[in-house]
């Protein structure tokens, strides 16, 4: 039974590593690849959970994660970037070093918090939840530090990976909720894509700085 | 009591019928508001409803009824409790007597000129809401009806919304009503405690601890006290009460302030458990300050209806002092003295509702006849409106606490309670009671000055404007309404002893004992506070003495001077200029008082604008007064809110990333708090 803990923590930990690499990776295709890898790791983690806990409906979640987030979304984003013609490097607002330090701080915060307040729960849930929270926070951090609309989308999707991980770790989440969350993410991708194309059409750029200037009332 | 059945005492059933009639009138008038005849029909219906409700409540008061039931309405688990006990019945009586007389006054309103869809549908709704507050048996019902009462009265305040002053008054009133209700909400939250049982019976069974009780007390004094008009929160009242149509002003000033007092009595004397002596301190301090301040405002103001509103503030101060004394005596175990103070408080509520309604109705008659309510445009109305003048004089004498009218009864009882102050075990209360008594005496003297001034300026002398010179007597129903109230003032003064014996069971519940020596006086009508040997007021005897001695003196003077009236030229040295401007004016009457108190209380400063020789413009004396209650408690917080929101307005124009950053930082901050806290 110890393997169950080790493997599941290994997979979650690898997802966290992927989140960190998302934070500093400044090439847009590399960002997509890491995101796809994170999604595949997620599907493996969920699948492992389904296997060890005998909760077969989690296999559906795992399959959804693999298909939607491991394949369809990265491919769609890839095509979008090619069509937008933004192969250039992504620029970051805060320096890489500071961002990574901030990421470390957030990870330790989530570990401290979750381990402290879930003393009563079993260690399987506790550490999985701590790692999931760290992934969520890192996803949010990525959304803030990036200016490129496409990488912001990736940040959002990675945040969502953390949510799915937390949901599968916590027992009792009904399948229908997981499925609907997965599909809502897909729909969010469509909406984002439409907006990004509109922004590009309008301003010849996907830098959201352009959006800020057009409002005219910002400083 | 606890079941959901409809087992109500007949008094409560009849009262509910009257209340239902109010509701019917309101709906009826709102639906057919285009028909003037329907609007006019509101008042007869209200008279019937008020008579039914007043009769039922009087029966409930005399029978010491305690009846109630629970309706499956309101909040899901709590339901809606309806409850009629002696305390509710007493205040229901006050409310419905007020509605009865003001509705009779409403019969005389001019159909084309006065009736409006903005007023008549809301009049019964307002009466309905006030009744509902009094018979609510749980916090939800109480607060819901309280808000309904605030909103319906707000609609009446802004019924003449074309006047910018009325809109301002309505705005301030609405803000204060909302703040007051929030404060009451917290008070009831504290009373309900962690168990969250909002029914009054459950609260009574489990009163809060001393710390929570103190907070509840503060919430109740702020919430209900601001509605009653306690200084320094009173500044909305002299704006809002005069802005409504006069018969509604009478209800707001005479009756709604009593509903607020009911709220305080219900919370502090009924729900809050055994009193602690220091609970009395805020009542005594605020009450004494309110009594004096209210009259200083009144005596310096030059608007008839606003003077009456300020005088309401003063009377609320007197009532607060009574409540404070009753609390202090009760907490000190001196239940006989507590009963005297409580009797004074309750009677003053009743009496003030009568004479203040009377005075406002008289002011309404003057306003209707002349179109003016500023003292500088009135005068000499005793010749043109003799009936109104006579009744107004009765009201002014009652409010100035002159025997044999009713104001004297309650103030006499209150001073009896003050005189029992040396019996307090706590030194603070022992020292405070004579100080409070001195403040009350000052307020009584100022009240007399205020109403001598108001009556003299409005009714005596010569008219100060064309409108006042062309005034006409008011319509018959309005005279009847004033006659009823004046009669009540006289009867209440003559038979105060009877009124006290009617509320004996109520005093037993609230103060812990009935009045000790009722019925031991020399005549059946004498009012005895403590014992017949030292504290006794025998109103009918005094009235007979006043009447006979007055008649004798009149006859004697007439006999000595001859009966013939001679008309001759005015003495020219005193009357060189026939212009009415040469008369003593309202400002000149109040000038000595302004000189004495204005500097400290109002920061008054006088500047004389004297033109240079050769300059033709007239010299002028400019007086500047500061209303500190308004400047510090109303204007300053309003400025702070506006300034803060102007500063926070920048948050509306951030970039997307800044918003994300805000959300993220908030999340991190909350997580940090959670990490540190748990």
Report on the structure:
Chain A is mainly alpha-helical. Chain A has one domain. Chain A contains eight helices and no strands. In chain A, helix 1 (2-24) runs antiparallel to helix 2 and helix 3 runs parallel beside helix 7. Chain A is globular. Chain A starts with a helix and ends in a 5-residue tail after the last helix. Chain B is mainly alpha-helical and 678 residues long. Helix content of chain B is 68%, strand content 4%. Chain B contains 25 helices and six strands. A two-stranded antiparallel sheet of chain B has the order 1-2. In chain B, strands 3-4 form a two-stranded antiparallel sheet. Chain B is globular, with a radius of gyration of 27 Å. The two termini of chain B are 44 Å apart. The model of chain B is unreliable at 1-6 (pLDDT under 50). Chain A binds chain B through residues 93, 106, 109-110, 112-113, 116-117, 137, 140-141, 143-144, 147, 208, 211-212, 215, 217-218, and chain B through 653-657, 660-661, 664, 667-668, 671-672, 674-675, 678.
Query: How many structural domains are formed by the residues of chain A?
Result: 1
Q: In angstroms, what separates the terminal alpha carbons of chain A?
A: 58 Å
How many DSSP helices of chain B?
25
Helical residue percent band of chain B: 55-70%
Mean pLDDT of chain A: 80
The shape of chain A, in one word, is globular
Number of DSSP helices of chain A?
A: 8
- Whole-angstrom Rg of chain A: 18 Å
- Order the strands across the largest sheet of chain B as they lie in space: 1-2
Q: Most extensive interface: pair and counts?
A: A-B, 20 and 15 residues
